[in-house]
Amino acid sequence: MKRTLLPLNALRVYDAAARHLSFTKAADELAVTPAAVGQQIRALEDHLGTVLFRRTSKGLELTEEGHAGLDALRDGFLRFEESVAAMQAGQSVDRYAIAAPRGMLENWLAPRLAAFQAEQPGVRFQLRERERADFSEANLDLAIWLAEGPEDFPGEQISQAQWVRIAPVDAPHAAGRTVGWPGDGRDDEGGDGGAAGEPCISVGSAGQALASVVAGMGAARVPFALAGDAIAAGTVRVEDGPVEGRRAYWLVAPPPQWRQKKVRALVEYLKASI
């Protein structure tokens, strides 16, 4: 059944004006001007074809028609609130769904989430391995992208756009071997360019490239943020860099997620750990 398009904003103004019996007080509640309240009421009266308020010597009064619709309207607003609460129920304040590239998840995100969880034991995480999470296909709170910027979504940069060429430790058989992956950027960012030649080993992601270097299979160019812990631990060694590139790691999410307190809290925690 086709539904009538309701002037919801004007109805909200009408409800506030009816509660206060004052356009000025309604304007204060709604953070608009009294003139804007008056315009909305006049537009609603034109739409309905009836007068809702009258001015008397005692002030503003509701007409009989104005009284008639209030109870049903307020019940409707209550149902709207219940509907919104139901839709938000899946976004529990202690549950997070996060997608990240595998290497970033294992080497950067997971240790920080563990520390966050240690401070807030009731928190639960659902982690999904995605090189580039699609918010239209998944119910996510946050995602980590390796990109030049957040593009179509709001985002917070969580790493410098620095890249490093790393090599195995004590693996003479791997000398001269290069591990390549689709995003290594050897041709379009700073660093070794094409000097290392055609990769001897090809993998699908930066995380797989890092794992291949750790395993002694060859050298690879990866984001410094991804390899930093392995470098510090002596698991891999630096051959070149860090050098500036164009891409960095970003925390991204659609606007509704950014408005959630739980998301803002986690983002601030992750940023503070950088």
From TrEMBL:
Record flagged with keyword Transcription regulation: yes
Pfam families, per database record: HTH_1 (PF00126), LysR_substrate (PF03466)
Record-annotated HTH lysR-type domain positions: 6-63
Region (Disordered): 175-197
Keyword DNA-binding: yes
GO molecular function, a single term: DNA-binding transcription factor activity
Record keywords: DNA-binding, Transcription, Transcription regulation
Matching SUPFAM superfamilies: Periplasmic binding protein-like II, Winged helix' DNA-binding domain
PROSITE patterns: HTH_LYSR (PS50931)
InterPro entries linked to this entry: LysR-type_TF_proteobact-type, LysR_HTH_N, LysR_subst-bd, WH-like_DNA-bd_sf, WH_DNA-bd_sf
Stretch forming the signal peptide: none
Family: Belongs to the LysR transcriptional regulatory family.
The protein's name: LysR family transcriptional regulator
Native source species: Alteriqipengyuania lutimaris
